[in-house]
Amino acid sequence: MPRLSALRSLLAAVLGVSWQQRLLGHHVVPAAWRRQCFSAGSKAEDSGQVTPILKHLMFKIKSTGPITVAEYMREVLTNPVKGYYMHHDMLGERGDFVTSPEISQIFGELIGIWYVSEWMATGKPKTLQLVELGPGRGTLTDDILRVFNQLGSLLNKCDISIHLVEVSPKLSEIQALTLTGRKIQSELDVTSPVYMKGISKAGIPIFWYRELQDVPQGTSFYLAHEFFDALPIHKFQRTEQGWREVLIDIDPKAPDQLRFVLAPSATPATEYFIQGKEVRDHVEVCPDAGILIQRLACRIQEDGGAALIADYGHNGNKTDTFRSFRSHQLHDALIAPGTADLTADVDFSYLRTMTQGRVATLGPLKQQEFLKNMGIDVRLQVLLQNSSDTAMHKHLLQGYDMLMNPKKMGDRFHFFALLPHQRLAHSDQKVNLQHSKSLSAPVAGFGELIWK
Ligand SMILES: C[S@@+](CC[C@H](N)C(=O)[O-])C[C@H]1O[C@@H](n2cnc3c(N)ncnc32)[C@H](O)[C@@H]1O
């Protein structure tokens, strides 16, 4: 298969090189990562803490009645004034959780290779827009840009630009520092869809937007790592009277606290979101994720490119996954809202359904399989061989273990891709298969590469 050998050469060209290592120090591998446990969590010490978001939500509930979990999540995470994501850096050892790109540079490097491989597979288009949704600290894009730089001779005729979709003013400030090495002022024209602009350390233009719709169309390669899990979900419970939506109300026994309640009757949401053939007793649905995936599918169908989505999730079989994290610990999701992260597992089967057949989908594939297929072992060995620093060795090995160990992130996180149908047209395999391991389609990461 000629494409596979081209990919192997590409991987060898990048992975085998002893180029830059990220400096040790910023990137301590913490003992725990964000998505380790499932349960509502125990009552927080500060159960009586009345945060500005709690006051705001109580006012809302008193005025118009109980709110949906989706409305709660949206307000708590992205309320422009006091939302959790808006004004502080929650990533890393001193924050509330840590993500793969923050754990090891190898993660972003392998993803960078995936994009170059897909760019080559689509005939090396003259422009390459890399669009990252929810870029956190900008670490992942920074690692990807290092790969692009390393492959300068291959990409030098390509017009590369970076497009970041980010709601958080605080995180976009950190992204600017990571990617450009300096602070960037917001655009003065408030009507412009671009709210910040900069140039990367290697001279690549970077643009910031609040929504995907604002990103210009054109051949684009999309990336969403731990983004879909932050989108608001609706929760539904099966009862003897039929499906009911789970709502959030003020606890009558503790007027400064919230509690979950069930809607007294079916609502349009229950009718609309619950499938007739549903067998579970509890279901979470994320309509925002459905709309976003439709938009991505339409763009890829029209303009080509690809999307890579990596998150923890399931294939339409899990039930109650809504949870909250603070300081690397489970936290009660209804206590002190705005001071802790809220998240729910991504339902990949729902995402696949919502593409409505416009694109081919691959995965979800376990992180450990995807990274192994991408050559993580080779890259680790090269980095180990090129450093004599024992602290660096320890860091690299701990990072590898965290990413790959099935009991840690290896089995919990999954990779899922959207590709134009014609991308797989030459493969005699079927697309949209749930277990992409059975595919031999030459898409990097989703098929095994033989390393010699
Ligand atoms: C869990 S963090 C993941 C960060 C990064 N991708 C990583 O893996 O390190 C979620 C990111 O999505 C952003 N975000 C959350 N909701 C968003 C929304 N509705 N629109 C745009 N960005 C959002 C957050 O500000 C943050 O940058």
Automatic annotation (TrEMBL):
Subcellular location: Mitochondrion
InterPro entries: NDUFAF7, NDUFAF7_sf, SAM-dependent_MTases_sf
EC number: 2.1.1.320
Xref: Pfam families: Methyltransf_28
Signal sequence annotation: 1-25
One Gene Ontology CC term in the entry: mitochondrion
Principal place of residence: mitochondrion
Keyword Transferase carried by entry: yes
Domain of life of the organism encoding this protein: Eukaryota
The protein, known as: Protein arginine methyltransferase NDUFAF7
